[in-house]
Design brief:
2 domains; mainly alpha; disordered N terminus; 13 helices; MetI-like fold; about 290 residues
């Protein structure tokens, strides 16, 4: 019976399509309902609340001094912590992919550790290390250096939190590539830097960009640890996520939700870029396999 159906479909030029069962319909419906309730509706509710009093108060929220300073500090901290994380991630991934040595698995576990730590714990760790009564507190105070309740504390905290993103994205790609192309470049007279720029970097570019994207999104939205090490010093250590919480706690609902729309827009951009990067990576892998 199935064979006859396939022959008839083939002769008529129409491909036989698989039957859609009740289970499949129910599963898709449940997924759509779940995503609508917990993703789409809250996403739209942010804009609805932000525009509740009209377009004027919505844009007024972005001209407030607190919002502008929060955006500026968030961009500043992200602009420092992400490049430093990229340098560490590239070095760590290259080291772990190219060499096998005792303690390698321990290093991999330590890189992954921030993913398992609560941001609150990270903030407490920073205070324990760099606070006035912390492990390095006396030495820092003697030399007139203050990290906690200043922007350096925010930078160090963000670096620790986003540490795994670049390394974990680049490492599998480097392991898959192997050493053949790099060894060939060295045999042809290329220096270490030339080999990295012309051979290694082009092969890991999409993984690197994806890791940077994830690290930047995580850094910009950090709240838990930042709220501890910042000291909530308005105009000096209050990033945009902290400022949103302060607006909400002070019943300035429109200002809080209007500021939150920046992160929702950033989330949409991140998802679109992620889809683009995934498509590019798939195309390159497909082309390489076709060869």
């Amino acid at each position: 019976m199935n064979l006859a159906r396939k022959l008839i479909s083939h002769e008529s030029g129409v491909a036989a399509s698989p039957r859609i069962g009740v289970t499949s319909v129910l599963s898709v419906t449940a997924a759509v309902v779940f995503l609508s309730l917990f993703v789409l509706i809250p996403f739209l509710a942010i804009f609805d609340t932000a525009l509740r009093d009209g377009i004027g108060p919505f844009f007024d929220a972005f001209s407030r001094r607190e919002t502008i300073e929060g955006i500026r500090l968030t961009l500043f901290v992200t602009g420092i912590s992400v490049p430093l994380t990229v340098l560490f991630g590239l070095f760590a991934a290259w080291l772990l992919a190219k060499f096998r040595f005792p303690g390698r698995n321990i290093i991999v576990s330590l890189i992954d550790l921030p993913l398992a730590l609560s941001p609150i714990v990270v903030g407490i760790m920073m205070i324990t290390l760099f606070g006035r009564f912390g492990f390095f507190g006396a030495w820092l105070e003697t030399h007139g250096i203050q990290i906690i309740y200043r922007w350096p504390g925010l930078v160090l905290t963000n670096i620790l939190i986003i540490l795994p993103f670049v390394a974990r994205e680049v490492l599998p790609t480097l392991e898959e590539l192997g050493n053949e192309e790099e060894e060939a470049a060295v045999l042809l007279g290329a220096s270490g830097l030339q080999t990295f720029l012309r051979v290694t970097l082009p092969n890991i570019k999409w993984a690197l960009i994806y890791g940077v994207l994830l690290a930047a999104a995580r850094s910009a939205g950090e709240f838990g640890a930042a709220s501890i090490v910042s000291g909530l010093r308005r105009g000096r250590t209050v990033t945009l996520p902290i400022q949103i919480e302060l607006y909400y706690a002070e019943y300035q609902t429109v200002a809080a939700f209007a500021s939150a729309t920046l992160f929702t827009v950033f989330a949409v951009i991140t998802v679109l870029l992620k889809a683009t990067i995934s498509s590019k990576r798939y195309q390159e892998v497909h082309i390489e396999s076709a060869r």
